[in-house]
Amino acid sequence: MKRALTLSAFGPAVLALLTAGCCCLGGRSKEGDLPKATGGASVYVAPIPSSIHCIAIMPFKAPTELIGLSVSDLFVTELMRMGRYQLVERTQLANVLSEAEIALSGLSDARAVELGNMLGADGVVIGTVDEFTTVAHRGKTYSVVGISVRLIDCESGRVMWTATLAEKSRDPGIPISQQARTVVRNTVFSLQKQWRVQRQVKRRK
User: Which of 35, 40, 128, 190 shows the smallest number of beta carbons within 10 Å?
Assistant: First the structure.
């Protein structure tokens, strides 16, 4: 049976960003139906030049506001490690839209682009937490987390890359927060391996 999730599953938000604006921050499942721990996401990167340098990462759509905010914060942390983009400060979103509204209802591509332009971003990342649960199998409990994300160019409205990954923890008893971190890290790593097909160019003024 699934275990009930509580708001303490994640604990405090994992990230506190720096200054305003764009700143460089460097039912029950059968076992056969469960996503496996593969370590690689399903990724598409448009093989065209990209002038996206500054991006805004919105809270992910999720069953609860805390899950949406926490998983998107994990994504921010991992994306920062790659050093490809500058990031808009999360707190700036409070000036344009409630984070709770985004996390619970999600955003259309058009609305995401509108918000990205208001924040001065070249692109905007939106995502969904498709799975965030635990499952029991043969008396042991496994965490299952699935996410899907995409980057939209605020100038053209084009989707520049997408990534989807759902994984069951390799070992029983792994906290769902730890599995979420693993899934996000594997997703960003899979994206990083494909970014070579999308050369970055200067943004037209």
Answer: 40
pLDDT bin (cut points 50, 70, 90) of residue 107 is: confident
Three-class HEC string of 84-120 = CCEEECHHHHHHCCCHHHHHHHCCCHHHHHHHHHHCC
Coil, strand or helix at 76: helix
Count of residues making up the chain? 205
DSSP letter at 156? Answer: T
137-178, pLDDT tens digit by residue?
Answer: 889 999 999 999 999 999 999 999 999 999 999 999 899 999
The domain limits of the chain are 47-197
Please provide the distance, in angstroms rounded to a whole number, between the alpha carbons at the two ends of the chain: 56
Residue scoring higher pLDDT (46 or 31): 46
47-197, CATH topology level: Rossmann fold (3.40.50)
Q: Which of 94, 73, 53, 64 is nearest to 205 (CA)?
A: 53
Pick the closest to residue 146 from 169, 161, 164 (CA basis).
Answer: 164
Distance CA 119, CA 44 (A): 26
Q: What sign does the dihedral 33-39-44-50 (CA atoms) show?
A: positive
